[in-house]
Structures are given as structure tokens and as C-alpha cells.
Model the fold of this input.
Amino acid sequence: MSEVAEKVKKIVVEHLGVDEAKVTPEASFIDDLGADSLDTVELVMAFEEAFGVEIPEDAAEKITTVKDAVDYIEKQKAE
Amino acid sequence: MSAELFSLAGKTALITGASGGIGAAIARALHHQGAAVALSGTRESALATLAAELGERAHVCPADLADPKAADALIAAAEAALGRIDILVNNAGLTRDGLALRMSDADWQTVLDVDLAAPFRLSRAALKFMLRRRSGRIVNIGSVVGSTGNPGQANYASAKAGLTGLTKALAQEVASRGITINLVAPGFVETAMTDALPEDQRKALAAKIPLGRLGRPEDIAAAVAYLASDEAAWVTGAILHVNGGMAML
Done:
């Protein structure tokens, strides 16, 4: 697992208080991890802070799974 | 834990418009209840005088909320001064009265910017911190004219009515996180704003108030102190009218 993926997983576990094993790449924040819409906003803000990236609202809307978040952040970091 | 009702001991509060009559009374009331306060406003010397009067637990954070960038900066400054913001009181406001037919776009926009957009921006910035802490209080200061209208105040009445909508929408968005957002709607209160009215108009105003007098800033401050307290934990999205019975809404 990449460094970004590790960190994303840690943030998700901490924020949503879910079991680490449930935080698979395909896991949907809302459908699988019990997040509500406000949680997803808070997660995006936590990612922005942890990785020093900016995630605009139209991009944030498309981040629905753990993998979506990792991919977006890695792409931003590479640029 | 304090046995005292409505204690704000250990809490922190940012009050905008604290150099004005109602704002200063709110700052005094919250401070009296034990809160550390950050006083914001455009008149730095008036804020410094109030801070000196309050003594300990008082910080000055000047800001001109007509500048859209000022809101984020003010929240950051107050978080730094206070350590955190438990209570945000959106009290700052101004008027640019005139009959609508003769009202300039500038006078419309200035009032909407300071009285409605600034509370939105301040709330948005403060809520980021409150969400993380799973607690917080926002008290907006509206006006009776937001419900009743008032000739010559199309801009002000619109902004204050908008603040009611903002209060209720935000209250629903963050209620699950233990954050409450309420609005105190003052009637006609003795301040520099009402002092500007001619004496006969002031008398006519008092005659319309069942409780027989204009409000005092302390009447408004007490309502804010209640909504900021732990005892108001089950109150959110509420409009508390404090108007001497002038409009029973």
C-alpha cells in the first residue's frame, strides 16, 4: 500500500470510527462505512489538510470511495 | 461542573460588532457568565476601551466585515487569541436606510454584504472547527423588521429575513454534531441607531410596544447568553423575539 493510501486509511478509520479491515479500496464512504453527507465533507477537509492539496467541490463530489480519494490525492501530488 | 445556571465558565466567545451598543452588552453578559471573549468591530479604540473595562479574558480582534476576505481572517485570529471558538455571535450590522425607489445598488449591496454575507462566511469558517470538536454555538442577531418589514429598510429587512433562513438551514446541517444555531430578533432598542431618530418618532415607537418602553441592550444580551449556554442544548433553528411584545410572532 502506498504512503498516501496508508494515510487516507488512517484518517478514515479515525474520523468514522470504523474497523480498519472495513476500509478497503472499494469501500464507499456512505454505503459501506456509514458516513453521512457531512462526514464526507469533513473527510475531504481532513484530506486537504493532511496532504496540503486543494480539492474543489466538483472533484470532491466524485470522491465516493477510499480508492477515489487515494487516486485523486496521488494525482494532485504528482502534478 | 458549576451548579450555576447559564454559566459560561471555561467557554470562549467571538462577538462581532462589539463596539456597538448591543454588541458591547452581549460581550459584557457573556464575559460576566465566565466566558473569555474576542471583541471584533471596525473601531479598534472602542474595542480596546471595552477590553480594558472587562479586564482579564478579553481580546481585541478588529475586522472590517465589508471586506469578503475579512471573515476567514477574523476566525483565524480569534481561534489564535482564544485557543478555540465555542460561541460565535454574529451581531455586526449596519443600516443604509432610504425608500426603495431611491435606494442605490451600493446601499443595497453594502447592507446585504455586512448583515447577511458576513455572518454566512464567519459561520462557514467557524463551523469547520466546531465540527471537529463536535460542539459549538452560533447566535445570530436578526431584527423584528426581518419578520415585519419596515418602510425605508428594504435592504436591512431583506438581510435580516435572510439571516433567519441562514440560521434554520445551517442549524439543520450541523445539528447531528451537537452544534446549535439560533437567532435573537431584537425589536427597537436604545442604541446609536435609534438615538438618531427624532424624539416624536421615538415616543411613537414606545407607544407601539406593549411593555411600554424601548429595549435596552441588556435585554438582548440576556437572550444571547441563554442561547449560548449549555442549558439551551436542545434549542436549535429557533428565532427568539425580544421586542417588548411589539410583534408577537
